What does this fold into?
Amino acid sequence: MRSVSLPARVRPGQRIRARVKLQRVRGGSLTRTYTLRIPSNARKGKQSIRLVGTDADQGDNGFATIIFGGEDERNEGGDPGPATLTALAKEVAGTARYDGVSVRIGRARGRAFRDEAFRISGQAATRVRVVR
It folds into this structure.
């Protein structure tokens, strides 16, 4: 993500269109338009709004913890793991993370958008005036 263009004035909870300039890895750039919701707890006044993507290679070793057990060396008997398939499914589902773009405006945070065709990483920021 290279840059973002938003309306100059926004309201908390409002759905707005964001024009986002993207750069393909070792390729050209493109501009796409997404709809996002301004977090309802955004403060009034001039605010910096930042869109933050999820890196494609950002990982979590939570799945390995489920399969191979924790790092606790004192448990010599080993962790028996989940007793049922349903319990295993719940543990695997617990490792999920949002792979879209998040929005941050002051202390307010939320999910901005997700693109089915691209994994968007990086971040872009601009200033907006939040009115009530």
Observations:
- The radius of gyration is 20 Å.
